[in-house]
Amino acid sequence: MVEFGVQVTPTAEVGLHRELVAAADEGGLDLVAVQDHPYAPSQLDAMTLIGDLLARTERLRFFPDVAPLPLRPPGMLAQAAAALDVLSGGRFELGLGAGGIPRGITGIGGPDRTPGESLEALAEAIPLLRRLWTEPGRVVADGKYYPVNVRPGPLPVHDIAIWVGSVGPRSMRLTGRLADGWAAPIPQYLPYEEWAGANAIIDEAATAAGRDPADVRRIAQIVGTITDVPGDTDTTRGDAPVRGTPDQWAAFFARLATEQPFRTFVFWPEQHDLTQLGRFAHDVVPATKALLD
Questions:
Q1: What is the dihedral of CA 159, 25, 46, 122, to 10 degrees?
Q2: Residue 252 confidence (pLDDT)
Q3: 164: closest CA among 82, 219, 215?
Q4: Superfamily of domain 3-292
Q5: 225, 270 in Cβ contact below 8 A?
Q6: Does the pLDDT of residue 233 top 90, yes or no?
């Protein structure tokens, strides 16, 4: 099944965000991704905003894109995620990262870890999160980074997916081995020409771990603008935003779904407004589905 979503940058323009997600809900989209950068002074806390927006929608699922594990350790993150899932009737998923901006993390008081240590901590956290969401009794874990001895609160009402925002080969292998999905970074952080290789690494790691690679959901996140006249949609290399007509966008998504294992597409509009969201929901999404039928 192919799914479609839109990204929200959690600025203080709360009224705009509420209007956008209401339109996304009514327009039949599946997901809303909310950037999660607790150290960014221009942004609201992502989890708090997600709670507000969940309460104002009926269908949409939400996920932080992506939660920095060093600032949201598993014990607290599991509790917050479970609460959002219970309150929304099962509409919260978890985008999770090892912590890609070390200066921001240490600046706000988070741990100072090497890239290798950050990946070790992520590998330790993923199975621990699942235990905290499924075991009704006391959870005890003697981890290197996250030792816990806790009785979790109310459990989620659905199996919360963990989608990892991997960038490098080591984190790709971790994703294939442990995660429910890959929230591919926007091309600014991982250029278009590296996506196929990244998917291959995830596939190989999943197979080596005895998993079906198709069980690792692939989420493409695309920055751009939907235009009235044909534009540049060359995504063979680089990181330029996609700017083209709805038919050009649909052809791009259909190619990604055919040539690579992407099954979810998250639109990052260059300008957050109701017009762009409406064109995505009512023009791009139906045209993409028609090409994939």
A1: 30
A2: 96
A3: 219
A4: Luciferase-like domain (3.20.20.30)
A5: yes
A6: no
pLDDT digits (tens, 9 = 90+) for 171-219: 999 999 999 999 999 999 999 999 999 999 999 999 999 999 999 999 9
Nearest to 68 by CA among 82, 85, 47, 89: 47
For residue 273, the 8-state DSSP code is: -
Structure tokens at 195: 């996506």
Tell the residue number behind the tokens 């919260």, with chain if given.
Answer: 92
Q: How is the chain split into domains, by residue range?
A: 3-292
Residue 61: which of 87, 93, 95, 99 has the closest Cα? 93
Give CA–CA dist 20/29, Å, rounded. Answer: 11
pTM: 0.97
The residue written with tokens 């890609």 in the block is 100
Is residue 256 a contact partner of residue 219, using CB atoms and an 8 Å limit? no
Q: CA dihedral in degrees (177, 181, 185, 186; nearest 10)?
A: 150
